[in-house]
UniProtKB/TrEMBL annotation:
<feature type="domain" description="L27">
    <location>
        <begin position="10"/>
        <end position="63"/>
    </location>
</feature>
<dbReference type="InterPro" id="IPR020590">
    <property type="entry name" value="Guanylate_kinase_CS"/>
</dbReference>
<protein>
    <submittedName>
        <fullName>MAGUK p55 subfamily member 3-like isoform X5</fullName>
    </submittedName>
</protein>
<keyword id="KW-0728">SH3 domain</keyword>
<dbReference type="InterPro" id="IPR004172">
    <property type="entry name" value="L27_dom"/>
</dbReference>
<dbReference type="InterPro" id="IPR027417">
    <property type="entry name" value="P-loop_NTPase"/>
</dbReference>
<dbReference type="Pfam" id="PF00625">
    <property type="entry name" value="Guanylate_kin"/>
</dbReference>
<dbReference type="InterPro" id="IPR001478">
    <property type="entry name" value="PDZ"/>
</dbReference>
<dbReference type="Pfam" id="PF02828">
    <property type="entry name" value="L27"/>
</dbReference>
<dbReference type="Pfam" id="PF07653">
    <property type="entry name" value="SH3_2"/>
</dbReference>
<feature type="domain" description="SH3">
    <location>
        <begin position="230"/>
        <end position="300"/>
    </location>
</feature>
<dbReference type="Pfam" id="PF00595">
    <property type="entry name" value="PDZ"/>
</dbReference>
<feature type="domain" description="PDZ">
    <location>
        <begin position="141"/>
        <end position="222"/>
    </location>
</feature>
<dbReference type="InterPro" id="IPR008144">
    <property type="entry name" value="Guanylate_kin-like_dom"/>
</dbReference>
<dbReference type="InterPro" id="IPR001452">
    <property type="entry name" value="SH3_domain"/>
</dbReference>
<feature type="region of interest" description="Disordered">
    <location>
        <begin position="311"/>
        <end position="344"/>
    </location>
</feature>
<dbReference type="InterPro" id="IPR014775">
    <property type="entry name" value="L27_C"/>
</dbReference>
Length: 566
């Protein structure tokens, strides 16, 4: 039976009320077993400990002072400035002097410092005489609601203990959104089924096939708040990745497929092998796994060593030579150069490039527009048409040559005419982005000629061999690279359009050569390309290029992060 409770005041603590209630429990013949159980529960030390915590939290919630504002110093300065703007009455003059005293300024500054701090409650210490069973590992029951999406967590087997451990939590997934499952938690049961003796792949299958409510029995790990901070690193993928073809991934369903050129936000690099990332522009907020730079480079080196596959690598700019011919046969452009076997110990692998958004600002020099083209693209004609339609906005980098000036040509308009000795001296001084020889005369495009156009606040268009991108891809030029390639059909004897009203018949061999040229250039230099323009005919290609040029100057673009860092 329970005797009449003593009168308690509003200030009586919850743990004190619990103690009074326990003291009033006296077993009788009818309810002896129930009352003994109830008394044992109320007498439990852990219950008393929790009640003390509850009381401290309620006391803090009730009496914690809340600052009215955090910027008293700023308000005082604003008020003093306002008073100085007009004639002052006696009391206003006194207030201004008061606000100017160092003592009051110090008090207001101290107020702001205290107001911005967070004062957490001091909880009572854990009693030293707790029962041994309370010091044993605690078990947490977690119930998650999951539809057709993955759970958003991967698991592993601890080699030392054999325990099933949560290896990673995918940002934005069901487990992450719940806030109840953490890396390092030990998983004991799934929907009431003991899983300690099952293989991780069997457990993953159970989790992936479960729909609706999933109940997990977990032994929590020690939380580390710092590990849950989301990263803000953005990268551009320089290769294609399909997780279902990757046998090394810890969970294929948790992998993020991407294409070369996709921009990814890396939200976690805690795992040195598998990063968590989201594709920029995706509506899906759940992060997924991608191979880290270190892991991808390590296995590419291994594959190259074993000779199983050719790894994607960054092309090396060829050594400049006075006898190099590069683009003067307009209808037969040179292909990007023959592939060479790289040194596996000094290879620059194409994996990711850190990027940031670049916002064009008024008064800033325009970005350099760089055109590269495969065989048959006729990019020089396309460039000339863009410039001819808007001479005030677009400019041409005037090339240098050692040939004699013709009667109708003007210095600095068609070419800069210089001597061979001067040309060779400029080569040695690194003034050319590319150069070559044609009919025993030297031709080249200089860095100075590009600067002259950009300094006039004009958009400079250059068409170069792709090897020149190695020189141009700097924060100084911030080049936007457009790859122009002709559309190759399957029909035999296809008429391939030119700038005139006539058409040049392209043979099957010509078409095959154009196709191979485009594929080879895409394979070797596609990671540097910002836009691919497939040229159907001159008119549509010109219209498409003009739209792209407008966007480049008006809209934010993803560029290498080093270009926007100060």
């Amino acid at each position: 039976m329970i005797e009449a409770m003593p009168i308690v005041s509003a200030s009586t603590g919850l743990h004190e009320i619990l103690a009074l209630l326990t003291s009033q429990l006296h077993p009788d013949a009818n309810h002896k077993e129930d009352l003994v159980f109830l008394k044992d529960v109320f007498s439990e030390k852990s219950i008393g400990y929790l009640m003390k915590i509850h009381e401290k939290l309620k006391q803090y919630e009730k009496h914690s002072p809340t600052p009215v504002l955090h910027s008293a110093s700023c308000l005082a300065e604003d008020l003093a400035e306002e008073l100085q703007n007009g004639p002052l009455e006696d009391d206003e003059q006194e207030l201004l002097l008061l606000l100017s005293t160092p003592h009051l300024k110090a008090v207001l500054s101290a107020h702001d410092t205290v107001a911005q701090k967070k004062f957490d409650p001091v909880l009572p210490p854990l009693p030293d005489d707790l029962d041994d069973d309370l010091e044993e590992e605690s078990v947490k029951i977690v119930r998650l609601v999951k539809n057709k999406e993955p759970l958003g967590a991967t698991i592993r087997r601890d080699e030392a203990t054999g325990a099933v451990i949560v290896a990673r939590i995918m940002r934005g997934g069901a487990a992450d959104r719940s806030g109840l499952v953490h890396v390092g938690d030990e998983l004991r049961e799934v929907n009431g089924n003991l899983i300690t003796h099952k293989r991780p792949d069997e457990i993953s299958q159970i989790l992936s096939q479960s729909q609706g409510s999933i109940t997990l029995k977990i032994i929590p790990a020690v939380a580390d708040d710092d590990k849950m901070k989301e990263s803000k690193v953005y990268i551009r993928a320089l290769f294609d990745y399909t997780p279902f073809e990757d046998k090394a991934t810890p969970c294929q369903e948790a992998g993020l497929p991407f294409k070369r050129g996709d921009v990814l936000q890396v939200v976690s690099q805690e795992d040195p092998t598998w990063w968590q990332a989201k594709r920029v522009g995706d509506c899906n907020l759940r992060a997924a796994l991608i191979p880290s730079v270190q892991f991808q480079e390590r296995r590419l080196r291994y594959r190259m060593k074993m000779g199983s596959v050719s790894a994607p690598i960054s092309p090396k700019a060829p050594t400049s030579s006075l006898r190099r011919s590069f683009r003067y046969r307009k209808d037969r452009q040179g292909s990007p150069g023959e592939a060479h076997t790289p040194d596996a110990n000094h290879t620059e692998f194409l994996i990711y490039e850190e990027v940031a958004q670049y916002f064009p600002r008024p008064g800033e020099r325009p970005r350099l527009i760089t055109l590269i083209g495969s065989l048959g693209a006729r990019i020089a004609e396309l460039k000339q048409k863009v410039i001819a339609e808007n001479l005030r906005r677009y400019g041409l980098a005037v090339p240098h040559t050692t040939r004699a000036r013709k009667s109708h040509e003007r210095e600095g308009v068609e070419y800069h005419f210089i001597s061979k000795a001067a040309f060779e001296a400029d080569i040695q001084n690194g003034k050319f982005i590319e150069y070559g020889e044609y009919k025993e005369n030297l031709y080249g495009t200089s860095l100075d000629s590009i600067h002259r156009v950009l300094d006039q606040n004009k958009v400079c268009l250059v068409d170069v061999q792709p090897e020149a991108l190695k020189t141009l891809r700097t924060a100084e030029f911030k080049p936007y690279v457009i790859f122009v390639r002709p559309r190759i059909g399957d029909g035999q004897g296809k008429q391939f359009g030119s700038s005139s009203s006539l058409s040049v018949a392209a043979t099957d061999d010509d078409l095959q050569e154009m196709k191979q040229s485009a594929e080879q250039m895409d394979e070797c230099y596609g990671h540097w390309v910002d836009y691919v323009l497939v040229k159907e005919d001159p008119a549509s290609a010109l219209a498409e290029l003009q739209v792209v040029l407008e966007k480049v100057q008006m809209e934010p673009q993803w560029v290498p992060a080093s270009w926007v860092r100060r």
